[in-house]
Amino acid sequence: MSANLIGLLVEATLQTLYMVSVSALLGTVFGLPLGVFLATSQRGELLSAPLVNKALGLVVNAARSVPFIILVVAIIPFTRALVGTSIGTDAAIVPLTIAATPFIARLVENAIREVDAGLIEAARAMGATPLQIIRKVLLREALPGIALGLTLAVVSLIGYSAMVGAVGGEGLGDLGIRYGYQRFMPDVMLAVVVILIVLVQIVQSAGEWIAARVDRRAPRNRGH
Amino acid sequence: MTGATISFEGVGKSYAGGGKGQVTALSDVTLSVAPGEICGIIGRSGAGKSTLLRMVNGLERPSTGTVTVGGRDVGRARGAALRAIRRDVGMIFQHFNLLSSRTVHGNIALPLEIAGVPSAEIGPRVRDLIARVGLEAQADRYPAELSGGQKQRVGIARALATQPKVLLSDEATSALDPETTRTVLELLRDINRDLGLTILLITHEMAVVRDIATHMAVIDQGRIVEAGATYDIFVTPQHPTTRSFLSGVTGITLPGFIAGRLTEARPHGPAEEIVRITFAGAHATDPMLARMTAERGIAINILAGAIEEIGPRPFGNLLVAIDAARGPEARDYLNRHGLSTEVLGYVG
Ligand SMILES: Nc1ncnc2c1ncn2[C@@H]1O[C@H](COP(=O)(O)OP(=O)(O)OP(=O)(O)O)[C@@H](O)[C@H]1O
Ligand SMILES: [Mg+2]
C-alpha cells in the first residue's frame, strides 16, 4: 500500500474519530438529561409530569424508528441551515447527534430505572430534593449501567459514521466506498474494515473497564 | 437532644385500587407516642404497618385525619417545610437501602450533604457516628463487603446523622438472624437511652416488641385493636389478634400428646378445656389456683409453665387443663382475680 494511501487511511480514521466523539458528546449532553427526565417523570415519580413524559417518549420512539440513512437525507435542509453545508464531517455530526440523542436517552433511562426504588425512598426520607436525589443517588448508582450504555452508543455511532460516508460524509466509510468499492481496491476495503473492528474493540474494552471500575455492587448483582 | 411526640388522630388511608375500587389501608387510627418512648407496632402482613409508619415522615399522606411530629402537621407540610421535618425524623429499613456506590463513611455522610452541612464539619461528625455504631474498622468498605448486621448499623448511623428527634424502623431486623437481631435491638435501646429520641418501630415479631418496646400497638386490617404499655398487653391481652401473636412468642408449648388431640369445638361427652393463664409477677398464681380448688372444688391440671421478662418485670404463663363443664366458671373466677385467660381448645 502506498504512502499516499496510508495517509488517506490516517486522515479518514481521524475524521471518523472526530465525527464519533463530537456526536457522542453532543448526544450525551442532550440525551443524558432527557433520559433522566424520562426515568423520573411518570405519574407519582420524582418529577411527575406524565403528559410531558408521554409526549417526549413518543418523539424519542419516532426518532428511533427512522432508519438512519433516511434520517440523514430527510434532515439535509436542517443540516444545511445549521452548518452551511450538507457534506463533510461537520455536516455528518448533525444526523449522528440526532440519532444518538434518543438512543442515549433510552439507555440512560433504563440504567436509572434499574436503581433500587428503596434508595429513592431513603433519600426522600432524609429530606432530599428531587434534584439532590437525581444527582447524588440516581446518577451515581446508575453509573455502571450508563457507562455500558454509552459504550453501546459509541459503538453504534462508529457504524453510523461509516454509513454517512455513503451520503457525502467523510471518514472511513467514505474511503471504503470510494477506493475499496468504486475503484475496486480490496486492500483499502480490508484496511478500513480492520480499523473499524479495532476501534470498536478499543471502545468496548474501555467502556467495560470503566463500568467495572465504578461498579461497587456485589458480583452477583452485576447484570452480566 | 430529646425526642418528639408523634401523634395520629383519626387517621385513614385509602388507595385507588387496581380494578376493584378502593383499598383501605388504614381506618380511624388514633395513637400517641410520647417523647423518648419506644413504641412497637405489630401486625400481620398487609395490616397497614408500613403505611402508618411512612406517614410520620410524609412518605405517605393521610386521606383523613392528622399526623403530627413535635406538633408539626406532617400531612399538610409541603416542599421545604416537609424536608425540614424529615431531617428531624430518621428512618431505617428492612433491606437497609444503602448506596452501593458509597463507602460506609460516604453513606453516613449523605444526609449531611443533603442538609447542606459544610464539608469541613461532615468528616468529624461521620467519624463520631461510625464510632457510635462500632464500625471503625469498616469505615472505608462498600456495602457489598458488609454483613447484614453491619449494613443495618450503617443504616442506623445514617438515620442519626442529622440528629433527629424521632427514629422510624420498618422491619429493621426482619432480614437478620436472631443473634444479629439481638445486637441491633440492643444498639437501638442504647441510642434511645443516650439520645432520648422517640422510636417507632414496626414488626411482625412479638419477640422484637418484647425485647425493646416500652409501649406497643396491635394493628389488624388497618385498625389499631389494642394499644398500651407492653407489659400490660403481654399480661392481659384483650384482642384475639394480640393473643395469637403472643402464643408465638411465649416460651411454652403444649405437650405433644395434647397438642395432637386439640380441637377447636368442644366435643360431646366428657372433655377438658385447655386454657392459657397469663399473670403479672413471678408467683402470683399458685395461691389463686389452690384457693379456687378449695372454694369451688374445681380441679386444675398444670401442663406447662414459664416465667418471662419484659424489661425488668417478670410475668408468667401457664397452660392448664380444666374439666370442660366447669371451664367457664373457672375462667370467670380467675378473671375476677386479675388473671388473663385464653381458651386454646378442647381435648375429648
Ligand atoms: N401504593 C399502594 N397502592 C395500593 N395499595 C397499597 C399501596 N401501599 C399499600 N397498599 C395496600 O395497603 C395495605 C397495607 O399495606 P402496608 O404495606 O402498610 O402493610 P404492612 O402491614 O406493612 O405489610 P407487610 O408486613 O407485608 O410489610 C395492603 O393491603 C396493601 O396492599
Ligand atoms: Mg410493610
TrEMBL record, chain A:
Domain ABC transmembrane type-1: 13-207
Biological processes annotated in GO: D-methionine transmembrane transport
Main location, first listed in the record: membrane
Taxonomy, superkingdom: Bacteria
Cellular component, GO annotation: plasma membrane
Cross-referenced PROSITE patterns: ABC_TM1
Name of the protein: ABC transporter permease
Native species: Rhodovulum visakhapatnamense
UniProt lineage: Bacteria, Pseudomonadati, Pseudomonadota, Alphaproteobacteria, Rhodobacterales
TrEMBL record, chain B:
Pfam families hit by this protein: ABC_tran, NIL
GO MF, any single term: ATP binding
Domain called ABC transporter: residue spans: 6-246
CDD domains given in the database record: ABC_MetN_methionine_transporter
GO BP term, pick one: amino acid transport
Family annotation (SMART domains): AAA (SM00382), NIL (SM00930)
A GO CC term assigned to this protein in UniProt: plasma membrane
Keywords, alphabetical: Amino-acid transport, ATP-binding, Cell membrane, Membrane, Nucleotide-binding, Translocase, Transport
SUPFAM superfamilies assigned: ACT-like, P-loop containing nucleoside triphosphate hydrolases
Family listed: Belongs to the ABC transporter superfamily.
PANTHER family given in the database record: AMINO ACID IMPORT ATP-BINDING PROTEIN, METHIONINE IMPORT ATP-BINDING PROTEIN METN
Known role: Part of the ABC transporter FtsEX involved in cellular division. Important for assembly or stability of the septal ring.
Name of the protein in question: Cell division ATP-binding protein FtsE
Species annotation: Rhodovulum visakhapatnamense
